[in-house]
Amino acid sequence: xxxxxxxxxxxxxxxxxxxxxxxxxxxxxxxxxxxxxxxxxxxxxxxxxxxxxxxxxxxxxxxxxxxxxxxxxxxxxxxxxxxxxxxxxxxxxxxxxxxxxxxxxxxxxxxxxxxxxxxxxxxxxxxxxxxxxxxxxxxxxxxxxxxxxxxxxxxxxxxxxxxxxxxxxxxxxxxxxxxxxxxxxxxxxxxxxxxxxxxxxxxxxxxxxxxxxxxxxxxxxxxxxxxxxxxxxxxxxxxxxxxxxxxxxxxxxx
Length: 254
Ligand code: NI
Hints:
single chain, 8-stranded parallel β-sheet, 17% strand
């Protein structure tokens, strides 16, 4: 079965038909979904969805784009959410230097606070790193006991190797199916099969041939197909491998 380790089903793009989409996933061979929050509100919404759908799990965290104007007790609120039995990670958290509105120092402060929390709670993290590779790598390595995934990894093969040797996982998404995906095959080449997880980032990052449409977990086989081709395994094998990897990363083993 398919494990979509990153999908934002609370997003307003799903308001017209959220239940219809989610209810259709098990029949489409999607057996597990992890829904990360981006701020306090969407983390709460992810948990509410996890309470409603048995195959859906949540992560709680504050994304760098949402780091402005946080209440004084924001970290306590994140920690309280991590106590929920269906919350399996702190995320998504990280650095985004593409969007300039949030000062970099504030992004780093919010990122470090959540990495420290995850390390203290012994929980995996889901890292968003957009055009901030050097700082993201340096900062996560300040927390040596910490593990997690670099979501939609866009760094170099050298950076991938640094993370992999410390036990991190790399997330692959729809953009690997785009014609201009140059780094992704090089990154996949240095990534062992047991460290690959697959994500849709729904409703965003829709793979070819549906690029431009709203994404959902049923398009995950297009990402898996591309990875299978690059790694020389069958799509069925890649499905099983990424299912096991996701369960190991987020400790969902029965
Ligand atoms: Ni995301």
